[in-house]
Specification:
The chain is built from 7 helices and 16 strands. The chain is of the alpha/beta class. The strands form 4 sheets. Strands 1, 2, 3, 4, 5 and 6 form a 6-stranded mixed β-sheet that branches. The protein has a 5-stranded antiparallel β-sheet with strand order 11-10-9-13-12. It has a 3-stranded antiparallel β-sheet with strand order 14-15-16, with no helix packed on it. The longest helix has 18 residues.
Length: about 250
């Protein structure tokens, strides 16, 4: 789930909290709920009580991650370094009781840090900045038209686009979005995002490719797509080029 309009015409954000302390996690959740009521932002909150479980969840899509630094086992800084190997975009805020650790966060593109115990006044200032950053992000979404009206789809969470007859199906972590058009026009629209054509039916986001086995692509959402024989060589070459740029883990 990514930033989008909700039913109250406000903003919907998916927030991940990585925090081993139950009281601290609850307090942060309370701050989010208070902010929600004051600013018309709805949050879907997922919590991990250790860094290893967070790192294992490769299919997780979020707008914002609150990361505790000092945790038993793998610490928050190591978890953030791992996370940044395959996600350079999601906003990251460190939560810590020692500012000296948070300063290192800039090496993993953390946008800010919050000191424990979290004061709501400080939290509110930082959250307003985060919401505005995500709201005004110009490069992250495409607008698709169908019978329901306009649908704003996050490109960074779009698994792939499929054409069935004259219908275009945008496969996302939420509900699929069905529209009309041609795959060639979508390919042109998504060219700058490195989507790959594996056959005449699919346009694939390479960051969600889990494995390629012969003429099959296994996606991280569990779907299996076919590579056509005529496109196999070009597809593999383009995928290798994309991986060579350091985009793939």
């Amino acid at each position: 789930m990514v930033l989008e309009k909700n039913v109250r015409d406000g903003i919907l954000m998916r927030v991940v909290i990585v925090e081993d302390n139950n009281e601290d996690a609850k307090h942060l959740t309370d701050c989010l709920n208070k902010f929600s009521k004051s600013h018309g932002v709805e949050f879907q909150i997922v919590r991990f009580d250790n860094a290893n479980d967070f790192m294992a969840e490769r299919k997780l899509m979020a707008d914002l991650v609150f990361m505790d630094i000092l945790m038993p086992g793998t610490d928050g800084m190591a978890a953030a370094e791992y996370f940044r190997k395959f996600d350079r975009h999601t906003r990251l805020i460190f939560v810590t009781n020692m500012a000296k650790y948070a300063i290192k966060g800039y090496s993993v593109d953390a946008i800010d840090f919050i000191l424990k115990p979290v004061k709501y006044s400080d939290f509110e200032v930082k959250m307003r900045k985060v919401v505005e950053l995500i709201r005004t992000d110009p490069d992250d979404h495409i607008v698709v038209t169908n019978i329901d009206g306009l649908n704003r789809i996050s490109v960074r969470t779009l698994y792939y686009v499929e054409i069935i007859g004259h219908k275009l199906v945008y496969h996302t972590p939420g509900a699929d979005v069905v529209s009309h058009g041609t795959l060639s026009k979508v390919e042109e629209q998504l060219r700058s995002y490195s989507f790959l054509r594996c056959n005449s039916c699919y346009l694939v986001n390479p960051k969600f490719i889990e494995a390629v086995d012969g003429f099959e692509i296994r996606m991280t959402n569990g779907d299996v797509l076919q590579i056509s024989h005529p496109r196999k060589a070009r597809f593999m070459r383009e995928l290798a080029e994309w991986m060579g740029k350091g985009n793939f883990v």
